Amino acid sequence: MRRICLGVAMVSCLTADALAAEGTVTMVPETWQPDRYRRLPVASASASTTLEGEQGKYAPANVADGHLKTKWVGSEAPSKDKPQWVRLDLAGDRQTVTGVAVFGERIDNDGVLDAEVQVAGPKPDEFRTAASIAQAGSARWLAMFEAVETSAVRLLVTRSSGPTPHTDIYEIQVLGPGMTPAGYHDYAEARLGEARQHHQSALVHARTIVPEPGQLPRPVGASLDGSTERIESAGKRLAAWESITPLQRDELVGRIEIVAARAKRLAERLDRTAKTWPDRRAALDTDRQAAKQSGTGARVSDHRAGNRIQLINDRVLVGLGAETGLLACQIEGLLPVDAE
Questions:
Q1: For 317, phi and psi rounded to 5 degrees?
Q2: Total domains in the fold of the chain
Q3: Which of 27, 60, 117, 125 is the most buried (most CB within 10 A)?
Q4: Are residues 243 and 147 part of one domain?
Q5: Residues 97 and 234 both lie in one domain
Q6: pTM of the predicted model, to two decimals?
Q7: How far apart are CA 62 and CA 171, in angstroms?
């Protein structure tokens, strides 16, 4: 399946389920820079194993920190039966990826010999190979492949050089189609505009649920306030685009990608709530009346109301949906709060 991925320029790209492992791998010098490509922002990193633990000195996050002096170290010997891997989840929504640059340890010092560059498919934890390398002749190499739309990239190592069982990697750069400086700014501005649109939609849905902002459940109000602050902060930083370094621009675009994705998820969640709110409000009004009728100072009573199990006294009602698993808490004088 082929899609047209939209950015500053039109780029033809594949989805991961249609990708063939036909990428090319070339050796690069230690000073190599992705001048012709855009370095994509990474939201998080994880690994199969890590020497000294994932929060220790050799954490997976080191491969995406922009420094060639910090590294991830896999603690177990890789093999085809039990490969070692490091996974990079991209910031924001799915991104168009065209290549991956790997900066590892020396070949004679726990460097990578055989590995596959993989991209995430549509299903959870599903990865497809985009390019592979065997008997690497250098610690640093660039894998390029046909543009693919994905949310994560994984380096799967099946053999390292020794002398210890470890695998050492300093940096992994995930690359997308190149942009001019002006185009990069326009892209960041467009993504921030999308974040603002999602945030506005979230506010509209929230007003559908309750007319006054002060009546919103605290977690929802906090999410909306946090979204406002993040968007305003990113906007101020974007206004200073010309005065910040290329690395700071990459960090800012990564932050904007995350802000836009969070705003979208919040808008979608409040949209679902707004659509079901009239029926839920009627059910909660019934619960409120039952709570009041239980009598001041009464002990907690329990009973079933349709498909819901309820615990009630005059101040608090806790209801559990037998089919949905949704927990609703009603406290006298406050808007109900739900949790899953």
A1: -130, 130
A2: 2
A3: 117
A4: no
A5: no
A6: 0.67
A7: 7
